[in-house]
Every structure is written in structure tokens, then in C-alpha cells.
Specification:
Layout: H1 5-15, E1 19-21, E2 25-32, E3 35-43, E4 48-54, H2 64-76, E5 82-86, E6 91-99, H3 106-123, H4 125-133, H5 144-147
Antiparallel strand pairs: 1-2, 2-3, 3-4, 4-6, 5-6
């Protein structure tokens, strides 16, 4: 099996996405409309590619127990990937991945993974916000750009 890190870089370059490489991962800021969030792409030598999208809001300590039940309900609605709470980051993550068995289809599989990760993060934006803050109103967008910083 191959590590598909170079293929991810090729796709991101071709699509015009800015990213930063670390020793293990590829980090980027993704956006869809007014929504912006961090994404972490991870590859293994066994052909696995994982995409982690971090919602920009820290989860208040007093909302964490009710959040988990809501994320379970949200996960029942997903056909691919899952939502989870990361105690290490204090944020909700959307995770999806793919096991690439055929190098000839790797480009399409990775591109679909990236687009699916971005689309589902955006599609569930308001639902995740409401789980975290318990609000039934509109999600504020003005402070999100300030909260999502590339170097954090």
C-alpha cells in the first residue's frame, strides 16, 4: 500500500487550496460560504486517508454531557463519517475516511473524501452550533473568521 500524502497535495494544489504540511499531517482552513473551519488530513502507509474537520467553537464545560447525546443523534443521520467531541481540543470534530485499495482510483477517492468532509461539515453547521450552545436562533458568523486561525 502507498501513503497518499503527495496525491492529497496534488489535489489541494490543483484546486487552489492553501495548506501547511507537518511531519504527519496536512493542515488547512476550509470554507463554504461564510463558514470557516480547520481541517487535518492524515495518511497512513497502509493506504488509509482520514479527514478531521474541527468546528470553530470551544464547547463549554457545562454543555459537554448533553452534547454527547446530541452528537449520537446526529450520527444516526449520517451515511458517511461521524461527529465526535475531542477533549484534547475541546471542540466538535467531523471525521471521515477512506481505505484506498487501488492506486488507479486514489485521486477520485481522495477528492471525494475532501469534498464530502467539507460539504457535511457545512451542512451540519447550524445543528452542531445548536448542540453546543442550545440556541434555536441563527448562528452568528462575524466572530468565526477571527476564531479560526491557521497557526493554532
Amino acid at each position: 500500500m502507498a501513503n497518499h500524502r503527495r496525491k492529497i497535495e496534488e489535489i489541494l494544489d490543483r484546486e487552489g487550496w492553501s495548506y501547511r504540511k507537518t511531519e504527519r499531517d496536512i493542515l488547512l482552513i476550509a470554507s463554504w460560504g461564510a463558514h470557516k473551519w480547520k481541517m487535518d488530513l492524515h495518511c497512513t502507509d497502509e493506504g488509509q486517508v482520514s479527514c478531521f474537520a474541527a468546528y470553530p467553537w470551544p464547547v463549554p464545560e457545562n454543555r459537554r454531557s448533553s452534547l454527547l447525546a446530541g452528537l449520537n443523534d446526529l450520527n444516526l443521520q449520517q451515511q458517511r463519517g461521524c461527529f465526535l467531541f475531542s477533549p484534547a481540543h475541546g471542540r466538535v470534530l467531523y471525521r471521515c475516511g477512506v481505505q484506498i485499495l487501488d492506486d488507479y482510483t486514489s485521486y477520485e477517492a481522495i477528492k471525494e473524501l475532501l469534498l464530502t468532509g467539507a460539504a457535511l461539515t457545512d451542512a451540519n453547521w447550524n445543528a452542531v452550533y445548536r448542540l453546543i450552545f442550545g440556541s434555536s436562533g441563527d448562528v452568528p458568523h462575524s466572530r468565526l473568521t477571527e476564531e479560526v486561525k491557521h497557526g493554532e
